[in-house]
Design goal:
By secondary structure, the chain is of the alpha/beta class. It is built from nine helices and 14 strands. Helix 3 crosses helix 9 and helix 7 packs across helix 9. The protein binds nickel (II) ion (NI).
């Protein structure tokens, strides 16, 4: 166990690397981050943070009030791990069978802690309040929603929010920052197809839900290519198709389970109707019936221009003038976007890629690695971002 009391005496970077390795050893899957939450709580209270009384089972929000008055800015890190057996061969590999930090959320927590410790030491000169959100269950896109429902924005104090994800696809020393969409909207679809079962050799008395369901799967692919502007990315993936009990009985029902990804909110808004029309009309053509359940998950990451500018300046200050790169967006989802529905924010990618060190596996790979060398600059970038954001909203208020 790392003793937080020594943080002020020892070199912060060494301490953070110890913390990172400890978090890495004891990963916990989404919504089960009990030990992680306890560890974080101990480190943060020791550093002078108060834990806000939000009712969430795992995760926490830690607050520091500067000695000088000013606005409130939030910084969010995710804390959960994945149900993946680690295959990195690291000396500090996961001690938990079948669970590992294969998305680098241990790295994100460490950066947040580093920024939290640094700001705690500068409390006398801090103009305003910073809330560090250690969010559970990012991988299942439940955590942000739970915190919001628990009242994260209820007191109306938070003016803006920032967050970081590692990106092995960007070289170490570079940072991906954009004020356009960075990550996609995620929605879930369930399509229930109902036909009429019967003997496998006597189809004329049945309505085959497997055939109707298969036609719907194919039809949904053309839904994208024939109905959506080709310059607007949309993906519809049916990942699960459940039907039937045995080989010689025509199945009376089928259930299709899929994920839908998009960027543009206007395009996203059209999708439930489009998918429903295709599914129900195709089913009808086969004499079957289809019912769509469209379950919205998270919108696309939508970075605010002014907040993005603050991040860009901070990155250039810390990593160097040419460090900002334009990231290639992904339709992978990230529930940070839910916070952006309430306050302006910027989510950005810190490059960790380094072929010589083997840091080139993508997120969720069993051999996924992060890059501890980036920690000091990432911490300083977050600190500078938060300071600049406090300044931005303080000056804004004075102008008014
Ligand atoms: Ni992740």
């Amino acid at each position: 166990m790392v003793n937080a009391k020594t943080i002020h005496q020892e070199n912060l970077t060494d301490r953070l690397i110890d913390i990172r390795q400890e978090l890495h050893r004891y990963p916990e899957v989404s919504s089960k981050e009990f030990q992680t939450t306890e560890r974080l709580k101990a480190w943060l209270t020791e550093a002078g943070y108060s834990i806000l009384p939000l009712e969430v089972e795992t995760g926490l929000v830690a607050e520091i009030r500067g000695d000088l008055p000013g606005p409130t800015i939030a910084y969010r890190t995710d804390i959960d791990a994945l149900p993946i057996q680690e295959q990195t061969g690291l000396p500090y590999a996961s001690m938990i069978d079948g669970v590992s930090h294969a998305c680098g959320h241990d790295f994100h927590m460490t950066i947040a802690l580093g920024a939290a410790f640094t700001l705690a030491e500068k409390k006398e000169e801090l103009r305003g309040t910073v809330r560090f959100i250690f969010q559970a269950a990012e991988e299942t896109t439940q955590g942000a929603r739970q915190l919001i429902e628990a009242g994260l924005f209820e007191d109306g104090q938070i003016q803006a929010i920032f967050g970081v994800h590692n990106q092995p696809g960007i070289p170490a020393g570079k940072v991906g920052v954009t004020d356009h969409h960075l990550m996609g909207a995620v929605d879930t679809i369930k399509i229930k197809v109902t036909g009429k079962s019967g003997h496998g050799a006597i189809p004329q008395h049945t309505v085959d839900s497997v055939v109707a369901g298969s036609a719907i799967v194919m039809g949904l692919q053309s839904a994208v290519s024939r109905n959506i502007d080709p310059f607007e990315p949309v993906v519809i993936t049916i990942g699960s198709f459940q039907s039937g009990t045995t080989h010689n009985v025509i199945a009376g029902s089928a259930e299709l389970f899929g994920t839908v990804r998009s960027f543009n909110p206007n395009v996203r808004a059209q999708l439930p109707q489009l998918i429903e029309r295709i599914a129900t009309d195709i089913a009808k053509g086969y004499g079957a019936e289809a019912v769509l359940d469209f379950i919205p998950q998270v919108p696309a990451i939508d970075n605010d221009q002014a907040m993005t500018q603050i991040v860009r300046e901070s990155v250039e200050e810390v990593f160097g003038n040419d460090a900002v790169v334009k990231p290639e967006p992904t339709l992978g989802g990230e529930d940070f976007s839910l916070y952006q529905q309430y306050v302006p924010g910027c989510f950005f990618w810190v490059g960790t890629g380094d072929d010589d060190k083997g840091v080139n596996k993508q997120w969720h790979d069993p051999a996924f690695l992060v890059n501890d060398e980036i920690i000091p600059d990432a911490v300083t970038t977050v600190v500078r971002t938060l300071e600049k954001a406090l300044e931005h909203f303080r000056l804004n208020k004075e102008e008014k």
